[in-house]
Amino acid sequence: MPQQGILVVKLGGSLAGTPVLADWLKVLAQAGGRCVIVPGGGPFADQVRKLQRELGFDDATAHHLALLAMEQFGRVLAALQPGLAPASSRDEIDKALGSGQVPVWMPTAMALGRPEIPESWLVTSDSLAAWLAGALNADRLVLVKSAAPPPGPVTAAELLHRGLVDPAFPGFFSKSGAAAWYLGPDQAASLAAGLDGREPGGTKIARDILRLCP
Asked: Most buried by CB count within 10 Å: which residue of 40, 60, 147, 162?
C-alpha cells in the first residue's frame, strides 16, 4: 500500500510570505511518493478569525471556513512548486503518491463532519495533520512552524503548555501511532536529511506518559 512508510508534514501557514518558504518547498518536492503535505491556514485562517470577531458567526462555521483556508494556502503551495498536487480524498492521495508526486491535502472533504474532529478552534492544522497521519497509517509526522522548537525531547502536553500546538493535538497525536518531530523555520536541511527514513532532526515529540490510578 502506498501509505506504508509515509511522512506527513504540516507546513505552517505562518511561513507564507517568508524567504524560507521556497526552501521548504524545494525539499518537500524531493519526497515524491513518500510525503503528504498538510498546509496550515496562515493569513487565510487569520481572516476567518477576524471576520468571526466582526460578524459573530458560530464556531462550526468558522471551522468549515478554516478548512477552506488551509485549502487556499495548499493550492498556493502547489502553484509555487512543481511536483506538488492538490489531493482531496484518499484515492487522490494514493494516486499522487503512486505517480511520484507530493500530495497537498485539501482537508474539507475528508475532515468536515467527522464526529471525532471538534468543529471549533480547539482543532487547527496541527491536530488535523496528526489525524491524517493516523488515517493514512503514516509512520512519521513533522510539524514545521515559524516558532523555534524548544529543546527536546518534549511531550505533546508540554508543547500545548508552551502554546505551540492546539488543545486537541495531544489526543490526536497519541492516537496517530506516528513518531513525530517539531522543526523550526530554518531547519529545512534537517528534513532533507531525513527523507531517506532517518530521523529528520529538530525536536522529537515524545509520547505523554499516562499515569493510571491504582
From this structure: 40
In whole angstroms, give the CA distance from residue 100 to residue 31.
8
Three-class SS of residue 48?
helix
Domains, the chain: 7-206 (3.40.1160.10)
Q: 8: closest CA among 210, 172, 207, 152?
A: 172
Q: What percent of the chain has pLDDT over 90?
A: 88
Euclidean distance between CA atoms 70 and 92, whole angstroms: 17
Terminal-to-terminal C-alpha distance of the chain? 42
CA atoms within 13 A on the CB side of 193: 9
Amino acid at 210: L
